[in-house]
Amino acid sequence: MKPAPLQLTDYFITKLHLKANPDYDRENDTTANLDTIEVTHNAMQLKIEENKATKWRVTMTIKQNVPKGRNIPYKFELEIQGEVYVFPVFESKRLETVVKANGPAMLFGVAREIIRAATGRGPFPAVVIPSTNFIEAPKKKVTKRVTAKKAAKKVARKIATKKSAAKKKSAGKKS
To answer: Is the overall model pTM greater than 0.85, yes or no?
Structure first.
């Protein structure tokens, strides 16, 4: 077995709130959609152990609200923090991207299990929240399109400006 370069070494719950919905109807379909679950996360570098590893704290909140009229068995909120070590030290540009995608993904698996276990001890069936990913879409580069005609005008203006400056300089020397 080869260990992964990112290791979730510890995690702990900072908040867990669970409330069974007394209006939940087991006989009707559960209308839990992704719009009822909110996931926020953050990764912050704590320290670098020279030539060994970088240490990060990953925080995550998973919250499900029960909008009026929705048949959802539980309302919950979970806050969890984890410590992630990265071995060996990556390039700093790549490191943040790797941790911000993979750190929350590892912690999310733990959080899913905590929510399943907590709701599994309630009066209704256990909730297994849907999987997700934490890869951010690349930011689009804004490229300036310049037509050949515009480019030619720009070059012509630069040449004209240089000629004008040269004329003024030579006129100043003559006097």
So the answer is: no
